[in-house]
DNA sequence: GTTGCTTTGTTCGGTTGCGGACGGTTCCGC
DNA sequence: GCGGAACCGTCCGCAACCGAACAAAGCAAC
């Protein structure tokens, strides 16, 4: 069976054989914490379905998202950069499943295969750009653009056009108030880009959503397609 | 002579011998552009003195900073991640000098030495955290905290307590208006944390500046000291 | 179909920072 | 010592967003 995870799917046969024996299928329920800040990380996780957020937990109890991982990559990229801990939390934001591999086994494989190393480091690059785009989006882009960007990033990482999110959740991810999210959703919905229902948002037009996201969306995804391969499986939904 | 650049200084003797012959001293004048977006990058640059910003250039002509490199690292980390181009611009924000190495020579050295690879990838990790902290700071932290963070980051990367910056420049780096910078500087100065003169800011108390920066400052620097070594050379200025 | 919880819609006043502009000051070159 | 440029301080009206709160609507369980 072909892996749903894009990174695993992109492996050469030899690299696949190197990792395969160490991969273990796991469930990733909603809210499951993959990594706690400063805690040693035992497994790298390749997500097949679902979404995982990397967030900073603030003293005041709030959380701010800095990165998003889905079937495009692994959690956490930092494991490839010589560290077993990170100062952020990783948790499942949309339930799904994936495969895990013990960190020592991952390290051995990466040490043994230059092509594997190259592929994984390229993913790190796309992730770095994604975080940089988050920084850019957070610097002044209006809530509506940030919302559009986030919806697109979610959309990129799953099949179909229905996204499961509440306003409350989006408000945390975007670092804004919930009413701000409500207003932004109405605007996008009024323009016909999405259709919002209780706990669910349907993407009606990716193309126009990308316009709405402005420059906050694009660079990370371009980088991914350039360095690794197609991000979305299916065709774009019609404009 | 011991390298001023922290990464080069941290090299083992063998790794130093590997890179040394390929290093070429260069001047880095103010405003010098090291990397243009999407343009192929011929050299990796290890900065000895001065400061280099990684910025996103917006359509409207504005620029937003996503990362800062000084004697702590190299420009650009992305070269270690299997790409020869990045979607951002790198330019010298404070003049200085450094050493450059042609990318193929860098790649050869990194391929040949696992310890070199490890060290450099650890630097990538610290840079990734720095960018993540930028995202966090940009998400709602008031201008004053962001200013404090930026001053500390500059201070970390040079000797002495005098920083050469104008309000105008800071406003670009922080993504706020110049008057907002002026007000924030007055606040910090009023509290006795800094002393501002025309085109110059003197750090009077690092410790209290770190307080003022809140949670925006710290994680990236902790990560650096944990993975690589001391960031600042000299002792902290008295509180 | 009623109860209770979750999610969504809306309101109010207040604050921060924006865009733009103007005047004052320091510094540099001549 | 003078002129000009760069830099700093301040003001205005305005828009976005915040914090808090409350009301309505969808959904689920019984």
Summarize this entry quickly.
2 copies of one chain form a homodimer. With 239 residues, chain A is of the alpha+beta class. Chain A has helices at residues 6-9, 13-19, 103-112, 114-138, 143-156, 167-174, 178-190, 206-213, 219-227, and strands at 24-28, 33-35, 43-47, 51-57, 63-69, 74-75, 89-94, 96-102, 162-163, 194-197, 200-203.
Give the N-terminus to C-terminus distance of chain A in angstroms. 33 Å
Sequence stretches where pLDDT stays below 50 over 5 or more residues of chain A: 234-239
Structural class label of chain A = alpha+beta
**Biggest interface and its residues per chain?**
A-B, 41 and 40 residues
Largest sheet of chain A: 4 strands, antiparallel
What is the level-2 CATH architecture name of the largest domain in chain A?
Answer: Sandwich
Question: How many distinct domains of chain A?
Answer: 2
Mean pLDDT of chain A: 91
Beta content of chain A comes to: 15-25%
**What's the order of the H and E elements of chain A?**
HHEEEEEEEEHHHEHHEEHH
The CATH topology of the largest domain in chain A corresponds to: Jelly Rolls
Name of the top-level CATH class of the largest domain in chain A:
Mainly Beta
Mind explaining what this structure looks like?
The structure is a homodimer of 239-residue chains. Chain A has 239 residues and is an alpha+beta fold. Chain A has two domains: 6-136, Jelly Rolls; 140-217, Winged helix-like DNA-binding domain superfamily/Winged helix DNA-binding domain (Arc Repressor Mutant, subunit A), CATH 1.10.10. The first copy, chain A, has helices spanning 6-9, 13-19, 103-112, 114-138, 143-156, 167-174, 178-190, 206-213, 219-227, and strands at 24-28, 33-35, 43-47, 51-57, 63-69, 74-75, 89-94, 96-102, 162-163, 194-197, 200-203. In chain A, a hairpin with a 5-residue loop joins strand 4 and strand 5 (63-69). In chain A, helix 3 (103-112) crosses helix 4 and helix 5 packs across helix 8. The longest helix of chain A has 25 residues, at 114-138. The radius of gyration of chain A is 18 Å and the shape is globular. Mean pLDDT of chain A is 91; it is low at 234-239. The interface between A and B is large, with 41 and 40 residues. The first copy, chain A, binds a DNA duplex (30 and 30 nucleotides) through helix 7.
């Amino acid at each position: 069976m072909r892996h749903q995870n894009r990174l695993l799917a992109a492996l050469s046969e030899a690299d696949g054989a190197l990792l395969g024996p160490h991969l273990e299928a796991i469930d990733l329920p909603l809210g499951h914490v993959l990594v706690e800040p400063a805690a040693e990380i035992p497994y790298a996780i390749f997500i097949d379905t679902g979404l995982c957020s990397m967030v900073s937990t603030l003293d005041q109890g709030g959380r701010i998202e800095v990165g998003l991982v889905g079937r495009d990559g692994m959690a956490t990229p930092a494991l490839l950069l010589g560290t077993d801990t990170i100062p952020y939390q990783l948790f499942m934001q949309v339930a799904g499943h994936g495969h895990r591999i013990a960190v020592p086994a991952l390290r051995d494989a990466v040490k043994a295969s230059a092509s594997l190393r190259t592929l994984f480091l390229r993913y790190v690059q796309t992730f770095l750009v994604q975080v940089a785009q988050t920084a850019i989006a957070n610097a002044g882009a209006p809530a509506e653009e940030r919302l559009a960007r986030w919806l697109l990033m979610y959309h990129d990482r799953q099949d179909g056009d229905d996204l499961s999110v509440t306003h409350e959740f989006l408000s945390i991810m975007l670092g804004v108030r919930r009413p701000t999210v409500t207003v932004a959703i109405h605007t996008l919905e009024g323009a016909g880009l999405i259709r919002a229902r209780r706990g669910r948002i349907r993407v009606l037009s990716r193309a126009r959503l990308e316009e709405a996201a402005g420059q906050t969306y694009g660079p990370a995804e371009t980088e991914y397609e350039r360095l690794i391969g197609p991000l979305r499986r299916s065709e774009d939904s019609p404009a």
